[in-house]
Structure prediction request, 92 residues.
Amino acid sequence: MALTSASTISDAIDQYSDNLSWEGSPTKAVLALEAVRFLLVRRSQSGGISARNWTFESLAAEKEKLERYVSATGTTSNAARSRFTKGRAVTV
Prediction:
């Protein structure tokens, strides 16, 4: 799901919650990063929904981790590529 200007805080929280296990998945990391950025842009000092609370300091730290991971793994199209460390010549 891509968040837009018409998205709500609840949409962003849902997207973030759906991608909490982003380590090892560039696709999930990009979606989680998008949700964190959305929440930081639309922020007050803190927030909460249904007894779930957060501070924006913790979101900023999570944003930095996500940005480092996404930067290291590249785009989702790059993540699908196999990386070889050793090759063997094919003879016909």
